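Job type: complex structure
Entries:
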Amino acid sequence: DLQEKPTLPLFGMDIGGTLTKFVYFEPENFDEFDVEERRILQIIHRYLLGDTAYGKTGIRDVHLEMGDQKICGRTGKIHFIRFPTSQMSAFIDLVKTKKFSGLASGICATGGGAYKFAGVFEKEIQLQLHKYDELECLLKGIHYSDRYNHRSECYYFSNPLDSENCEKKPFDFRNPYPYLVVNIGSGVSILSVRSKTDYTRVSGTSLGGGTFLGLCCLLTGCDTFEEAIQLASSGDSKHIDKLVKDIYGGDYSKFGLTGDTVACSFGHMMSKERRELASKEDLARATLVTITNNIGSIARMCAKTEKIEHVVFVGNFLRENQISMKLLAYAMDYWSNGCLKALFLEHEGYFGALGCLLEYLH
Ligand code: ADP
C-alpha cells in the first residue's frame, strides 16, 4: 500500500454500522513542535479535551484513557471517543462550522464507513480517508492494548452466574496464541488467530448487537441501547422462553439437559395468554439472552473445529452489558465441560480505531 501516511495530529477512526469510534493521541510536550503544529494542537485540545460530550450524541469514554503511551517517538495519552454513525452528517457540519478542516490533511480510517463516506469527507471537509482493513486493525489494537495498557486489559469471570461469588479477575494474555476473537458489533465476525500475522475469519453471523437492539426496539418501544439494557436487567426470560422443564416436566437426563435449559427461545409467545402477561422487561431480557446464547454457541463450535481454548469477546455489544458477558462466560465453561475460557478486554469496542491509529507507527 503506497498511499501517503498522514502526519500530525494523530487520529484513528473506525466507522461501523452503528457506532463511529474515534481515538486521538494527545502528545505531552508541546515544546517539540513548531508554531503551526502547536496552533493546530491547541485548537484540537480546546475542543476535544475541554469537554467529555460533543453535540447531542458524541461521548468521550474518560475511564478508558491510556496514559504514558509512546507513539512516533512521542509520549502522550490516547483518548477514546464515539458517536452514532447515523450522526455522520452532523459530525461533518461540526468540522465545517468549527473550521476544523485544514487542521489535518488525512485521517487513518477503517470499518465499512471508511469506504462509504470517503467521497463525502473529501468533498465536504477536504479530508482524505486513508483506508485500512478492519479485522487487521482490530487485531493490531488488541495486541497493542494488551501490551501497553498500564492497567490490566484482559479479564475473565469466575463463578459468572453466582451473584455472591462472581469475581472479575485479570488474565495474563502475554502469550495468547492460538485464540479466537468474537467481535460482536452490529453483526458478528469470528477470527481464529494463530500468531500476530497468521489469522483467518472462520465464521460470522448477522444476528449480532444490531439485531438485539433492532428487535428490542420493535418489541418494547425503547429507543436506545442503554434503555434496552436497562429493561433487560430487570426482566425474566423464563416468562418468554420455553424451557426443557416446560416440555418434559423436569430434566431431559438421557442427554444431560437440565430442566432450566432453554429449549425454545420465545417459545411461550405462541400462547395468547402468555403474550398478554409478557412485560417489556421480560421481552428485552429474552431478546438479549437469545442473541447472546446464539453467539455463544457459534463461538463454541468454532473453538471446537479450530481446537482453540481461549475465546476473546469484544465489540460494543458488551458495553455496559454484564448480563451478556456473564452468560457467555458461563456458557463457554458449562457446555465445554470446563475446556473453554471466555475472556474480555477493557477497551471492548475500540480496537479497530486503536489499530488504525497505530498505522502511523509503520
Ligand atoms: P459497529 O462497528 O458495527 O458499529 P460496534 O462494535 O460499535 O459495531 O457495536 C455496535 C453495537 O453495540 C450495537 O449494535 C449495540 O448492540 C451496541 N451498543 C453499545 N452502545 C451503544 C450505543 N450507545 N448506541 C448504539 N449501540 C450501542
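Summary: The mean pLDDT is 94. The first strand starts at residue 10 and ends at 15.
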